[in-house]
Amino acid sequence: MDIEERDIRPEGAENGNPPPPPARVILFPTCLVDSFFPGVGEASVHLIERTGAEVIVPDGLTCCGLPLFNNGFPDEARKALETQMDLLGGEAPIVVPSGSCAWMLRCVLPTLFPEDPWLRSKAERIALRVQELSQFLGRYGGGEPGEHLPGKTVYHDSCHLLRGLGEREAPRRLLDGACERREEMTGADRCCGFGGSFAVKFPEVSCAMLDEKIGAAEKAGADWMVAADAGCILQIGCGLSKRGSKIRLLHLAQALAGPNAPGWPDSDPPEERAP
């Protein structure tokens, strides 16, 4: 199945204030955020609301179908997404705090209904409204002002955001305003070894890739490591924990929202959190 390359990078505001935000935004929270990292969802809502947009999370949203599609079950992925499309109707932008799921909805969804013109047209209209979180914020703003992350911060490129959606700069530009110092680590664009079921099917290779990633962050002297995909957060977080590393890991949404906003991973009250 051929997947059409689509340039989905939103047109950013240049040399001026951000454009007026949409009145409403649909947040597609993703399975991993919903099940394992709800704080990422809270931080995403906070950031989007700071632009002035109302955030809607439709009841009944489930999986985008990416695990099924990647494992060779396009028919099952099609069925899963067909049930979602009615929930994603309308004109509001669909913002996804994950390059993987944004790629699935933007680039794969329109290819899944080649023999049904009505569903294909519906899927194409939905796909055109999909933006990954950093792309949306890069256009409309929404980050908390101030350097939330003292010391040195490194950013890890998630594969689907970088290669699937072609987005490298938006997360970095946003992060530059939230950290004291951002350092480019060696191999920032290399896979962390998660890859969904890849980490299960090829654990030795996955662990070697993970060790390389964390080693690069440690060599850079990172105090913080930031990624924009919950799958990468899951993988890298496990590796940091096993190594007893002092590097703190954040999703981009949490890094931009800051320690006093909803979704910060500490359980301490705001007044006791690190600046």
Describe this structure in words.
This protein is of the alpha/beta class and 275 residues long. It folds into two domains: 24-138, Rossmann fold; 146-272, 3-Layer(aba) Sandwich (Rossmann fold). 43% of the residues lie in helices and 12% in strands. It contains 13 helices and eight strands. It has a four-stranded parallel beta sheet, with helices on both faces. The protein has a four-stranded parallel beta sheet with strand order 6-5-7-8, sandwiched between helices. α12 (230-243) links the parallel β7 (224-227) and β8. α7 crosses α9 (169-176) and α11 packs across α12. The longest helix has 17 residues, at 203-219. The radius of gyration is 18 Å and the shape is globular. The model is unreliable at 1-15 and 267-275 (pLDDT under 50).
